[in-house]
Amino acid sequence: MAGDYMEEKEAVFKKIGDDIKQRIVIEKMIPGDKLPSENELVKEFQVSRTTIQRALRYLEKQGIIRKEKGKGSFVNIQKVQVEIFNFSGFSDYISRMGKEIVNKIVAQEIYEDDGKQMMKLKRLRGMKDDAGIVWLTLDQSIIGLSLFPGLENYDFEKESLYDVFRRDYGVFPQYSHLKAKAVISDSCHSTYFDLQDTTALVKIEGTVFDAHDNVVEEVSIVYNPITDFNFLVSV
């Protein structure tokens, strides 16, 4: 019984913390914006000051807010700007920012589609700084192995997919047909991006081609809502 009570109390302050985090995203608050005072949050959520303080510490540990003694709590999270180029990979972009790239393979499989060998690669992609790892995207690539034999033998937690295309196969992604849509986060997104299950996310999906109009990959990318977007379109 005591354990259930403690779990319930912990769930309350985390739920409040997640609600505040959601507000920061929805209201497009920027670093330096001040949050409501502890007294205001106590009245809003109808809980004790201790619970509010735990919720704020929960957000502070994630780097989402900072507390200043005698002044209050302020938005601290830095939005990361991602440019979606017609033929540029994620690793290329993060490298240009001078950040350390971090990849985590979520799933990888080889399967046959209409007699063709295909590889499905699903990865979390992010960057690392002094505060830790920030996961920015959940990527899925579907690649025909006829163009890239042996691709399944590479370690794509360490290797850039596009670097391998160019360096070892002489294939240079040149342009893409992409479309964007809004999706609601599922349990996987919530776990990876530390979100509630009802968060609206941006999903980009489409096809990447080389200069000879060969399909390089079918791609699907879901973006963490802390990310800003610039779409650069060639005409």
UniProtKB/TrEMBL annotation:
Domain HTH gntR-type: 10-78
GO terms for biological process, alphabetical: negative regulation of DNA-templated transcription
Entry-linked InterPro entries: Bact_HTH_transcr_reg (IPR050679), Chorismate_lyase_/UTRA_dom_sf (IPR028978), Tscrpt_reg_HTH_GntR (IPR000524), UTRA (IPR011663), WH-like_DNA-bd_sf (IPR036388), WH_DNA-bd_sf (IPR036390)
SUPFAM superfamilies noted in UniProt: Chorismate lyase-like, Winged helix' DNA-binding domain
Gene3D superfamilies xref list: Chorismate lyase-like (3.40.1410.10), Winged helix-like DNA-binding domain superfamily/Winged helix DNA-binding domain (1.10.10.10)
A Pfam family hit: GntR
Keywords: DNA-binding, Transcription, Transcription regulation
GO terms, molecular function: DNA binding; DNA-binding transcription factor activity
Protein name, as recorded: HTH gntR-type domain-containing protein
Organism: Vagococcus acidifermentans
